[in-house]
Amino acid sequence: MYPLLRINLEKLRHNAQIIVELCRKRNIKVVGVTKVFCAIPKVAEELVKAGVDMLGDSRIKNLKKLQHIPVPKMLLRIPMESEVEEVVKYADISLNSEISTIKNLSEEAIRQGKVHDIILMIDLGDLREGVLKEDALLVAEEILKLKGVRLRGVGTNLTCYGSVIPTPDILEELIEVKEAIEKKFGQKLDIVSGGNSSSLYLVQNGLIPRGINQLRIGEAIVLGRETAFGDRIPHTYDDVFTLEAQIVELKEKPSYPRGILGMDAFGEKQVYVDRGIMKRAILAIGRQDVNIGDLIPMDSCVELIGSSSDHLIVNVTNCDYPYKVGDVVKFKLRYGGILSCSTSEYVGKVIEEA
Ligand SMILES: *Cc1c(COP(=O)(O)O)cnc(C)c1O
């Protein structure tokens, strides 16, 4: 049954290997980020085969599925107070910015007879998670007093909210925070987690400061592109994930609606252009599954026209191939498309083994 999300494990492993190798040359370990594909275990296993050091996900529900894989699991989103018990159970290490939550983690870890590792997140200007630089020493001091948790290092996240591009200067600040903590408390920290796929261009150009020794990478592995500038990473695939949807109607119709125009199904006023008669195909997939802006037709003659909850309209007028009802149209996906197709229970998943 369609729609189908195809996942090519060989291509995924290839991409991951290229990035792990790129980072290894600069003494950087890779946390393979699994959230974009909902941590499907077989897919995550491929990242480990490619040599990632840890697996990371923003959701405990996803990390729970990866317990059989023998690498440390990192929780990427700041833990909720309501999930502290599961965080200690299913994650070996978590990114944190709230001392009250870290205290809860400490108590829970003692209860479970475990030691939970903490990365203290520092906000270097992107304005999502992290303590401000000037508060880092105070918070670190509090963490170091706690039992059941171990401060392993510092980290930062950039580009996700504030679109701030990581630069050598900004990442040097992270290393300075780490060194200040080490100096003040006489305690070595072994991880400096310098961001996500937007930090990779610094690795590629040899500009990543010495001292950054971990990156948390999702998009660059699944799509083969760095995310500071959106450039492709040489020798990687951009079609690890592809989507297939089936044609349920194919007719020649006008391109301009007839009648008085109000709002579409999503309450938006649309602008239509009269381009005469078109050969229009309706595909059985819709906004419940994927946003039209995240689709890239693999057959370049296919043009995206519009979509509603369960229907996607494409123009196939210019195609040499005589598309008909029952045919399948294939797409590459942008990041949001991989994410939404992975979470949609209406999209089947096919894992192509190497
Ligand atoms: C999602 C996420 C990442 C991975 O980001 P990519 O851009 O996909 O590489 C890294 N760190 C944190 C905290 C995240 O939430």
Please describe what this structure looks like:
The protein is an alpha/beta fold and 354 residues long. The chain is 28% helix and 25% strand. The radius of gyration is 23 Å and the shape is elongated. The model has no long low-confidence stretch (mean pLDDT 97). The protein binds pyridoxal-5'-phosphate. The site of pyridoxal-5'-phosphate (PLP) has 14 residues, from strand 10 and helix 9.
Question: What keywords describe this structure?
Answer:
binds pyridoxal-5'-phosphate, 17 strands, single chain, 10 helices, 8-stranded mixed β-sheet, 9-stranded parallel β-sheet, elongated, 354 residues
The counted number of beta strands is 17
Please, how many helices?
A: 10
Q: Name the poorly predicted regions.
A: none
> How many strands, what sense, and barrel or not for the largest sheet?
9 strands, parallel
Instruction: Please identify the structural class as seen in this structure.
Output: alpha/beta
How confident overall, as mean pLDDT? Answer: 97
Radius of gyration: 23 Å
Describe the protein's topology.
Elements lengths: L3 E5 H16 L4 E5 L7 H9 L4 E4 L2 H5 L8 E3 L8 H7 L2 E4 L2 H14 L3 E8 L7 E2 L3 H10 L3 E7 L12 H18 L5 E3 L6 H5 L9 E4 L1 H5 L17 E14 L22 E7 L11 E3 L5 E5 L4 E4 L12 E6 L1 H9 L4 E5 L2
Parallel strand pairs: 1-17, 2-3, 2-10, 3-4, 4-5, 5-6, 6-7, 6-8, 8-9
Antiparallel strand pairs: 1-11, 11-12, 11-16, 12-15, 13-16, 14-15
Helix pairs in contact: 1-2, 4-5, 6-7
